[in-house]
Queue: 4 jobs
Job 1
Amino acid sequence: MALAVLRDVVKRYDQKLTVDHVNVKIEEGEIFGLLGPNGAGKSTAISMICGLLKYDSGEIVIDGLSVKEHSLEVKKRIGLVPQDLALYGNLTAAENVRFFGKLYGLRGNLLKERTEEALAFTGLSDRSKEKPATFSGGMKRRLNIACAIMHRPKLIIMDEPTVGIDPQSRNHILESVKALNKLGSTIIYTSHYMEEVAAICDRVAIMDKGHIIACGTEKELRDRVAHEEKIVIRAANITPGLLSELGRHPRINRVETVQDAVELYLPSSQSELQDILFIFAKHEGVIVSLHIDEPDLETLFLSLTGRTLRD
Amino acid sequence: MNIWTIMTGELRRLLRSRTWMLNMILLPIVLIFLLGASLSGVVGGGSPETVNPVKVAIVNTAGQAQVQSAMLDAFLKSDEVQRFIIPVEVQNRGEAESGLRTGKYGYAVIVPQEFDRDIQSGVHAELEFILGKNHSDNTAAGAVFDNFLSEINYKQAAALTLGPEALAAVQPVLTEQPAVQLGNLNNGGKDYTASQFYAASMLLMFLLYSGLTVTGSLFSERENHTLFRINSMPVKGSQLFIGKMLGVGLLTGVQCAAIIFFTDVLFGVYWGNRPWLLMVFCLLMIIASMMLSILACMLCQTSEQATSAVNFLTVAMTFMSGGMLPLPDSWVNSVGAFTVNHWELQAMIKMMLHSGFEQLLPNLLVMSAICLVLISGVVFTYRKVGYQ
């Protein structure tokens, strides 16, 4: 059963299409990744799902309720973890969680229990009486999450929750996402880090310039670009003649150079590897290393847009 | 319930701010003390004045052999007059003038020959007064002899109308009332001190400055991104806005009460005999201040712009209303009537002087009207712009 449905949703800013006829169904209980470069329209889409922005046309339905018509009811079912830290600096961690919990309608013992639960879940129980100013970046991010989950929402939306934090905190957050999902929450996770999305999401939608350009499981998406492999060869003495001859090879689709490496895109690496090594030897190119990349979401994005995710 | 949660959250955050406590409560009290102490000569009546009895040279132009005016003699011997006049008989005008120059006498009266007879026969008669060096002495002695002449005029009028025998029937009336009365004869005999004036004007200025708390509160929510989070929660925009304003308003009320309490206890500032009306005026000022600041927040793009606008309005209105220093009658003073401080300051001073309610009513009506206009402006702007 679909928990969130976006039907032909359009949002314009000054006549510029920011979200362009987006259609997505997010099933209950899944972790849904929204992947795309900065400015792709991910945050705008999320803001519309949360009722923070009005969409120009189309329809968004959460748990059977239209966001436009039942905004407050929809908001009760959602927990938003904003991209920017949204905390009060002069309240303690527990007070922050409690304040936002009250706004979700929690009171008395239930509020107390849920506050403790959210802080324990994010590993902040022992720092609950401290103010966020004394926290590391990762701890602030975790508190940011705690403030959004204490009311046990059906749908948790995490907008780039791992921006600017250390690997340890990132792992903690990714584990938390999985744990929340196991506890029954459906999660929409946006990021421009392909590895994160690939690691935790059941399905992924790739967004660019307001469009959903691909949507499916990671395997489904990889299969779309399985017809093309990438060989990365680090070498010395990469000459224009060498690159030119590689480019003329009938089975090599594309040749790119990145610093001292040559990236070759071709349908199958195995059958052409001998030819490639021969061309290098002919032009006296000294190979330092050779690596055959499996197709990934980055490759898919590149093949669909001609750009990398971090462009 | 959301309004309550937001209001208490706002109170908690503000009360934890030491800067707020220092700026909004301690600073006004220190300022009131400094201004009240240093400008006590500029504002208010200062300490009550006393008039010492004036030595008055009485020159009898009839010469030593003649009897001085019996009427004047009787007048000068009355108890009421002796509180202010010490009559000293001198031989001639020269001696009187010399005594006035040296300060031996404070005032001189020259009594013409046949003064009493002229009065009784209804012909023209006059006393000649020579003023001394001291203004207060001249005022006091002048008032006493004016009183005497009034009585004489009254008696002469009676004699001319009813005949000389009527004089005996005329009761002396003038000595029944004091010739000189000390103190401020306006404002029901009351005056305000510099401390009172500056306590009122600084209270009003800092209530206007509390608008900065409003701008800080509204903009910080945006800058902390907490506004984004709250907007994603089941909270109506109006609930958030009202809750925040109630929190700031309540705290401004506490600030106002603290300033009034501490100035009363520490510096003996008397705030008048109408505490409830004082509360109403303070409430109106808090509303006006908050509405002005909200308008500034909604119409400005950044917190810096809004803060500058509130600062400018506060200083300009305090100055125009004469809150920094009483202004002479000029166009600046006239423009002051268009500021909220003007109506509030006048009302507070009137309350300190125990003015009647009918004198305070215009101020109350004008302030209520100003608040209504500002509230309407805020509602209209909120509907257009919102709080996002």
Job 2
Amino acid sequence: MHSFGYRANALLTFAVTILAFICAIASFSDNFSNQNPSAQIQILNINWFQKQPHGNDEVSLTLNITADLQSLFTWNTKQVFAFVAAEYETSKNALNQVSLWDAIIPEKEHAKFWIQISNKYRFIDQGHNLRGKDFNLTLHWHVMPKTGKMFADKIVMSGYRLPNAYR
Amino acid sequence: MGWIGETVDSIKSIQIRQLFTQAISLGMIVTSALIIWKALMCVTGSESPVVVVLSGSMEPGFKRGDILFLHMSKDPVRAGEIVVFNVDGRDIPIVHRVIKVHERENTGEVDVLTKGDNNYGDDRLLYAEGQLWLHRHHIMGRAVGFLPYVGWVTIIMTEKPIIKYILIGALGLLVITSKD
């Protein structure tokens, strides 16, 4: 009952249990953080808008993205993954979500930013429904913790519209 | 030589009833582990409720050796979710993020494109020959939580199976020669 083996086993079990408990509490503490992120997206330019050889519409945009995601960071946050998606509906598809740009924000200091880029991923439709299409631009974020539960949320910005003709 | 004689004596002196008791206790431990695993499968609705990250394609968020807790609900798949999926013909699941979703009006079927955060291009190269989109039946679960470093135990045991055998052998020896 008092051999080295028993003592080592009891110590190890206790240590692992305490570690698991601490991880759970760290994750739980994330529920209490006050979060108020903000963002604005402007479409500066439609670079081109064409129908591809095999029939699908494709558009290239230049976006101006301003965001302040600093309030999302807690002591248990490893990084925040932010991305902008265009969301619209067509007659065939109830919902289309196309990610246009994403970024990994590793620290709170980098979470307040202003960036002007053309879309990182191609905005391609399934079909040719994009002329004159109204769509939303949504900034999504995914808070990845050092340990425990991950949180995700978004801000929806509506009122964007594609031109009526190809250019 | 005397040590060998002692071991042989101790093996000969094992009573059959004691041996059965020990075998049954071991069986109980293994079975309860299995019950917990199956219960987790039921609760999370996923075929494998816990997966180990094997590659660096989701760094710096998930490193090799981290474990992910999965959950699969009837909610529709949306962009930004981290999903675990199996490609037809491959048995190792892949954990990447959804970047494109096209959901059909009537049937609710969905076309999904994924990409690893740390990869340059999307996953079309990883899908089966001629496959452009993932469908719901490929997806095993969404990642909802994560623990760092714990998965290294599984990686070491899979890549160097000799360690697995040594561990099981040592455990077996301990069970046989322990006094209680």
Job 3
Amino acid sequence: MNLYVINFKGQTTVEELMNPEKGSPGAGEDMEAAESFIQQAMEIILQEAVKKATNVKEKVCEWRSPEQLKELLDLELKDTGESESKILQCCRDTIRYSVKTGHPRFFNQLFAGMEPHSMVASFITEAIKTSLYTYEMAPVFTLIEDALLKTMMKLIGWEEGGDGLFNPGGSMSNMYAVNLARYRYCPDFKEIGIYASPRLVILTSQEGHYSLAKAAALLGFGTKNVYVGAVPFFVNATAGTTVLGAFDPIDEIADICEKHNLWLHVDACWGGGALVSKKHRHLLKGIQRVNSVAWNLHKMLMATLQCSAFLVRDKSCLLQRCHCAGASYLFQQDKFYDVSYDTGDKSVQCSRKPDAFKFWLVWKAVGTRELEYRVDRALALARYLAQEIKKREGFRLVIEPEFANVCFWYIPPSLRNLPESLELWKKLHTVAPAVKERMMKSGSMMIGYQKHGDKPNFFRMVVISPQVSRQDLDFVLDEIHSLGKDL
Amino acid sequence: MEATTGDLTDPLINHADGQLFLHEAFKIIVEEVLCKGTDVKEKVCEWREPEELARLLDLELREKGEPQENLLQRVRDVAKYSIKTSHPRFFNQQFAGVDYHSLAGRFLSEALNTNLFTYEVAPVFVLMEAEVLRGLRELVGWTEGDGLFCPGGSTSNMYAMNLARYRLYPEVKSRGLWSLPQLTIFTSPESHYSVKKGAAFMGFGMDNVILVKVDDGGRMIPEDLDEKIELSKSQGAAPFLVSCTSGTTVQGAFDPLHRIADICDKHKLWLHVDAAWGGSVLFSKKHRHLMKGVHRANSVAWNPHKMLVAGLQCSVLLLKDTTDLLKKCHCANATYLFQQDKFYDVNLDVGDKSVQCSRKVDCLKLWVMWKAVGSAGLEQRVDKAFLHARYVVDQMKKREGFQLLREPEFVNVCFWFIPPSLRGKEKNADYQNRLAKVAPVIKERMMKQGTMMVGYQPLGDRVNFFRITILSPLVSQKDMDFFLDEIERLGNDL
């Protein structure tokens, strides 16, 4: 590549750039320089962002306040470029002060761990750099997305297959479900909008993900029309709620939806992973009856972000009909190949990343049995943690975990003899934030906390990564006590 | 295999194996995708029919895994049959080429694997995104404002629609569209289709996207905009947004922003500028005049993954607003993410500005590139693209058989190739039909031979023509000459 563009510091005139002798693409030394830069950058990434970042002896995070961090990073964008060594140092600094989400003691979110096959697939995706709107632009990735979706549909239990695509996040998948249900209810809405229609209402549980509320706002329903209203047309059931990891009873809900002819969508972004486990898939019993499913492979199954599937039990091209705009500059009908392979008009996006590949390669690499084993192990670890919590003084479970979320309070010694009262709750509410601050400043681990309904702040431990072991969970409990015993 | 407590002692994944795989796979990526993929002596694409490709790839997902050797072969296969979008002869879309700094940034984003919703999980990137947005806003002409990175320009355009709606009728967030008058959106027929898709998605309805006439260059006619707004009002509808375009998809036209802004001011409509394609001219002192008046807009969509070669995806929405409109419009205040009792300033938790929950780190790729080449380097990139376009246009005028649609304003060069057999036959009754068949055949031939990729499409009543967009910093005059020769070679016998 023409590295003179990379190192360009305003010295050559534009006329010189047009000279065909200078900097022809593929010229040996230019490619070498580019290759050398990328090799060095990758070496840093492998050492610092992969190897060290997954090493239990290293910190999970290197906490700095925003003001300190701004100074350290030298974020300013200037007119002239910087040297190669400065850029590599920028990469090192970015890594140093970023949170190591692949660390065995990162439990803060519903994603964790480091899956090397997925990471390789991510790197390939970045290098290949294409968009999934047409077969001509992404032949390999189009077929891979289709193969993965079909396999997922088999796991769900849709014998006749269906349709689907990968989205930039589960929130988007949930929005697609609402939109499809609305379109099925009345296809005319696509053209005329919803002003004149009866007020349609979305039903979900209080524990449902907030993306349903955001969907209601964005799609024109209004957040007040989630829960209670005039004409229900859509029900969202959650398989694996965000905080408690609860599973709505899909079979029973499906009975009701069938009776009232409502679209049933299952937000299985978090809990979908249980489908690969013969032991735990019962949590989603009935899922083959639903109209649509959102399932994020970047959560329990550890694909790199983002890897969010949206699946719909439909063979009538509903997805295409609902979203298409037939842009003639992309979806020409006179192409020389079968244009039904152009998936772009199923989407509300134009350019779309080939996210399915990041999990297809993992599945090829490890196989279904290994995926199953990983899920079973994560849930066994969660059970272990729950048992330990029950044995230890000062730790109290919020509820018996159903999945991989283990929610509990840590009650410091000073509060242990207080009676159950509002006063105890108020004091307890301040414990988790203080412990969180300490753990982040020491960089020893990261765990989330939140309040929930009228319950005071509690920790939510999420067990995902196969790299995590019993010792790490023991450490978590020891560390919380160590950080919080003087509160 | 039942996971018992005893199995829980040792970690399951062997990181040494994983790291070795990363190492080996990376070598293949460099060789097959980066080196060969940018080498003019290699093909742009290795065409296979879908059924054949499916067989070659062995797509099936099975119970058992595979050894590393197999997986590395798979990596090679994926590289082989994928389009080399960084190739000097790839001209098919509005992205091309490769910038190695941004590539390093992209690899780094993938390796660090985090979401941009809170400072606690993405401290570096929250600050970095803010700085990049500030720099881009400065180029628009705003010293303050708001914004964020979106998963694509279509989403940025939707956000603008949502904000405009919310500003006018804040109650729509909770009550929905049911109680509102019929809201209407104004755009040109040459605008991107995401305006229509967004309108359908958000409940407005595609029919409420009113198309404003364009001149023969494809630019919105302000007088017609004014008339259509008046008409819409007189019909009892409530116009609320004009979505105009800086750099239309096919022709690369720039709507006249100052005059459109006058009309928006007059009628109090939100002015959104879809500069996903054309926004990068703002880096160029020579060409930024094309977007004169952009500072008067309320919002701007801009995709650095297009002309700036930042790599997919890199799309921003920039806002003039300083009243936290973005957050108010989108927030849902989820207590499991946006706790108010955190130990740092929670204004740094930007997640609630977005309609997404998890949001990828897209700012790093642009930041690294900008740091490496400076604004001056990016300016050169833009200027060079214009020069290439000028060169191609001049050459086409000299060659028989190449007919431009019109003189390009930007770097989209739209033209028909008229094979010798059709030359001079414009008056024939079936001329248009026969001409329409030329581009698809040439396209098929170029793809099956893998020599280059150029897009074609019809537009209005104009039959299939080619659209070449020249933006890659890897391209030189030789590639332009090759492109012209190759079209002739592939189409002369038609």
Job 4
Amino acid sequence: MSILSVRNVSKTYQSGSKPLTVLDDINFDIQPGERLAIVGPSGSGKTTLLGLCAGLDSASAGSVVLHGKAMEQLNEDQRASVRNQSVGFIFQNFQLLPTLTALENVMVPLELKKRKDARVKAMELLKQVGLADRATHYPTQLSGGEQQRVSIARAFANEPAILFADEPTGNLDTETGELIEQLIFDLNREKGTTLVLVTHDVELAQKTDRIISIKGGKIQEDRYV
Amino acid sequence: MFDFRWVLTMALREFRKNFSRLLLFVASMIVGIAALVGIHSFGENLKKDIENQSKELVGADLVLNNNKPLGKQPTDSLALAQSNEINFASMVAFPATGESRLTQVRLLEGDFPFYGTLETVPVEAERTFRQGGRKALVEKLLMAQFNATVGDSIKVGELTFVIEGELQKVPGQTGITATVAPAVYIPMEYGEATGLIQYGSRLRYQRYYLFEEGYDVEALTQTYEEVWEEDRVDADTVEDRRRQTGRSFQNLSNFLSLVAFIALLLGSVGVASAVNVFVKEKLASVAVLRCLGVSSATAMWIYLVQIMLMGLFGSVMGALIGSGLQVLLPTVFADFLPVDVSMSISWTSIGFGLVTGMLVSVLFALLPLLKIRRVSPMATLRPEASETGFGKDPLRWLVILGIFAFVFGFSFLLLKDWKAALGFTGFVVVAFLALFAVALGMMWAIRRFLPISLRYTVRQSLANLYRPNNQTVSLIATIGLGTAMISTLFFVQNQLLDEARFADKEDQPNMLLFDIQNHQVEEVAGRLVARDLPILQRVPIVTMGLESINGLTKKGNDTLPDEDRRSRSLYNREFRVTYRDTLINSERLTKGQLRPFENPGDTVFVSLDESYAMRTGIKLGDRLVFNVQGRPLMTYVGSFREVKFNQVSTNFLVLFPEKVLENAPKFHVLITKTKNDRQSADVQSEIVREFPNISVVNLGAIVETLEEILGKISFVIQFMAFFSILTGILVLISSLIISKYQRMRESILLRTLGASSGTVSAINTLEYFFLGSLASLSGILLSFLATFLLSNYVFQLPFRAAFTEAFVLYAVITFLVVLLGWLNGSKIIQKPPMEILRGNG
Ligand SMILES: Nc1ncnc2c1ncn2[C@@H]1O[C@H](COP(=O)(O)OP(=O)(O)OP(=O)(O)O)[C@@H](O)[C@H]1O
Ligand SMILES: [Mg+2]
């Protein structure tokens, strides 16, 4: 059974008077443990698609079944609960909560799952991303690469079945970017998580198992590497 | 699904970082809470003190009073002691200077007050005055006005007295009563000899009783209620007075609480607008939380809990400051207080303040906080997404409803009358809407009509008012409402005083001579004519009582059920009426017509003051039987008149036609116009010297008294308005600090682009100048409107715009805003650009 199934999904925005179709009849399935890259030119609808897959937004038409749950049948709060149970996120601009320390940022998903060992587990994850000594620092006291490492630790904290990453290295220099990629792939392998990655970076895409390229809201190509 | 412990943990984590910012939000609320708690505590203490000092308030256990001699009373033999007083208004003169003034003369016999003392300087004067001799105790205000000292003499009627002491305080008297009618005490035995006790004098006879400790005075008054009612004797017990005084001060303190509440509401607008900025900054974090699986309600609670914590903090601060504020209040209200007010912590007031503060902060913060519910997790991927989808939250209306309900509930709690509470709520809503409308309108107009040809600095500074996250409108509203309160007060006060002063300029009467006896009137008129003064009006006055209305006598009226009964005061009142067949120019006929009395046997038609008829429910055509010196006189109500009070004139509730009262005993009022103050003083001193029973009032004296009273009242109102201004300033300061980072970025960008620091500073200063101008002008505009409405509908005076005062106010408020902005801005400009790059200034 696939962990994510996208069927006839379209997304239309009402911009001004005329509707703007950003995604048009998208179909694909992802198997557990699979590593997928979504590529395409700017404005092609990658981020929109990722948002729909992760249940951040709802499709105009079609169906998204994430971890056995049909997203379009759930309301926002129910989708939030699905996200907490089975989804992890890594963002281009890190998206750490600025008022929380690194450790607390990682603790949030665990606490939401009501895990008693949130602190210990979070500390462990920070250790894995090599930031144990920065646990009490606030995001502004960390460099971009460090922030992204914290956000990776947070993404894996709730042991998600599927991990979504939108341009995770987009804001970082090449060297740091490669470090981050390595970290994501290593943790992914270790935890056996499914990975959906949006990127411009062809090299990065090549490191995954499968590449879907979209253009003008349509799937151009869907191939296994 | 809702994990409150986690919400609390998160709130506290956030709180750590947000504390100083959140503190700014509630800062604007603290003043309002402080004012509320201060006033409320003061009111509570006052209530307690009135309770404790109620005997000193009356000075006796029981007071009887009537407008004719009390004679023997059944209570005389039951009391331990009694003391008699006759009081009336009369001129007193200071022979040393020849100056005179209308005062309240009190003839005293016995040991009144039995509780409390007549406080005098020197202290022993209170005692030596009672040892007999022609001695007087004179109100300190009067002494000051005429530069008199103890040992000088004072002339009351035909007799001269030595001033034995200066009166500091009389039981039950306040500074205001002393201003209107300063008291002069003289021994009762000289009463007759003053020649002032005669027909036409408005005498009040009072008898004070002292009873044994624990004597049931209430029961006693019950026993004799009927007898006294019959004789029109008014009995006043300590309990009555305590109730009355308590009630009127409760009303006062409630009124002031409402004023403080307005300051609090102003602060709440500040809270809402600051929280709005706060929320906008937090939207990104909320989106992340939503991504991590936090439900929208939980996310909102995380921030609401922080606001609640801060609200609690602010309320506690406010309550502390408010409790301290009490120290000031007795000084502020000194002239209005009949008792010494103690100071103590009032826990009810503190509780009241805390609850109000929490409610206000939560309700007003909820409005912007609701946006959090609408944040899409998509915003983490695409930040613009957070800007869409607001405003449609149906809960918003619920919160707005909640705010209205709260304002209504609060005012109902204080006013205990749902109509009045509704009125107040309406007033608040309209005032805020009006200000917001003015603010928005002005901003729109600037945008719309701003010439592009303006200098760059001017354009840039105006554009700054529209920067994202600007708080311009709420600043205009808060500072504006504060300005509006103060300026309305100024304008109304000015208007009233001007009206009185202007009256002298035109060909209007400015001097009134009254209590002229029938045999004196020709001679007095002669004196005026001899001085070449016009007799503008010669008004005969006849006193009478009302016997029956449409056949219903006082007795009959008493037997009626409450809802059908007419006011007892109708029957107990002594009517002072005049007669003429024409209207004078301060009068206007509103209904019916004046009908002269032609032949004996004709019906007598009288004309009533319309508002008095309204109050007492008398209709056109009603049959009124008056008692004129023991003789019944049947009349019908033929017309209603409206009387304007804006000029020196006599005002009569009842006007008779000529030829009816010509033979009744009467006295007279003469009205004239002097050319200047000097002449007024001369005439007054001559008349008072020659005819000591005649009272003289000149416009100058009225204006002076009016000025003094208005000064005292306005001091109190200014004190209250001060809270609103202070709140406005705090809102301003907090908004300045909130926008600091943004301003820094802007100014550094400008400097990077090559603007000199002088230009940047000019732009900043201009921005505050515009902000201050807009706010104060909105306020002034609103207060012009309020003054216009007040003068037209309440005082019935022509509206005169006080442009000079308005300009001064405008300049002061604008300067204040510019100064604050400049203080804040100069620090920004000194910051090196690098600091901005690192972020988080
Ligand atoms: N709320 C919206 N309303 C209207 N149009 C939108 C909205 N959100 C996105 N779009 C449009 O949808 C299209 C796809 O946007 P999307 O962000 O998915 O592209 P992308 O492939 O992620 O591009 P990039 O590589 O630049 O991030 C764009 O043309 C964008 O303008
Ligand atoms: Mg994108």
